[in-house]
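Field reference: sequence -> structure
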Amino acid sequence: MTGAYVQPIAPVGGSLAWSALVAVLPLLTMLVLLAVFRLRSHSAAGIAVVVALIVGTAVYGMPVGSALSAGVEGAVFGLFPIMWTVVNAVWVYRLTVESGHFDVLTRAFGRISPDPRILTIVIAFLFGALLEAVAGFGTPIVVSTVVLIGAGLPPVRAAAASLLANSVVTPLGVMGTPILTMSRVSEIPIDEIGPVVARQVCLLAVFIPLVLVAVIGGWRGVRETWPVALVVGLAFGAAQFVCASYLTVGLSNIAGAVAGLLVLVVAVKVHPTHREARRAAAERIHDSRRRVVEAFAPYALIVVVFLVSRFGPVASLLSNASLSFPWPGVDVTTADGDVPTAETFTIDLFTAPGSLVFVAALLSIPVLKVAVADAVRCFVAAVVQLRWSFATVTAVLALAYVMNLSGQTATIGGFLAGAGVAFALLSPVLGWLGVVVTGSNTASNAMFGSLQVAAAQQSGLDPTVLVAGNMAGGTTGTPIALQNLALVSSVKGLSGKDGLLMRRIWPLSIAGLAVLSVLVWLQSTSVLGWMVP
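Structure field:
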């Protein structure tokens, strides 16, 4: 079908530079409102949507009805499958809290080693990865911080460790929600993005436990525990890589957490420094083996449900419930004459990550012995807890869709493509910037995914490497994201400490960004091009 609206590339006087300056106004609006005026994310994103609609209709000439419809489509995609996944993931977490099994989990982790440095790896990194897999959106940071403070760690160090540990798990978190979003806005299949992200992020994951040990125990802590920290990082990164590359992206963090935990259990038994500490910790543990198994059951059920859904006959059966249809009111073609895939809306009722987590949650209710009424109350509480996340995610995706379908993103991409192959260095910077101001890898992907593709195509670069670079760069922005700092500052003992945390962490954030920028650039060349599948 031929679209009634053709996206212009340079609508302002035929100048790509001036057109890009106008096209970037919605993004600049959101960034300034967040960083300078400190508006809440949903308010800043909502105002940015209005600016995008004005630019799209007044400057680009997109029909008002089409622009509004594009925004509505983005918002609906934000609700399903994005927030549907998040709500059910948080529901699983709340069920474990309601049944008392969350405390059993934390005690089980503490039994491994009471050494605060090792305990930080267990709780902030491994357990945090597990929480990121099923909850995300700041939940692992807050929960890990609270647990570490409860274990006796100083509040600022506990928060810094939780923020840093959460960084490398965000691109593959919440059952693959960030990659699902990037796939949608970039039009690149998930199975192509996942392996490339794994080849960027998993390298950093290897060293995160060493960084955490340094934060908690200084260089002395590194000297005393580096063998344990290093083998845990290697196990985590390897399992995360294998799962993202060859199995399913949504379970990557769970695979990494399980592998890291298994290796850590063996390592602390072998390492002489931790043997006596483990014996002392064992004396304080009174949970039965059955309670511990029950506590881990919801996460095991999520893995089982996902694996079963991938089984041939089951996958074919579930795919029959998928529905695709042209989104009403959106009739667009690109300057090259192509029809954007965003014109077609797809609903995967039974194969969506959120639906699979929902099934796992239902199966967990009897295992955790939660009454039906209490389970319903937990679900409602999850929705209420995420009410502002609903507003933020739907607004950011509405912004992305309006900018993408009107042609604003293509204009910005065309301008940045003028940097040529050097744009590969800027790719992670965009992801970093998006996460710093929104606090979400998912939101950053929605903002910059199409821009990365447009710039890559016009620069002759591999778009998959750059969209993965956007996600990888976002990992280094997570520890200093304004939203995340605000979240931890609400924890007892950390009120007003967000500025202190920012000053302590930002050098690590910038260093990680520099490393990833060089890595992505080299992957776009023949030097490390062999790393890309």
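Note: Strands lie at 5-6, 322-326, 332-333, 344-348.
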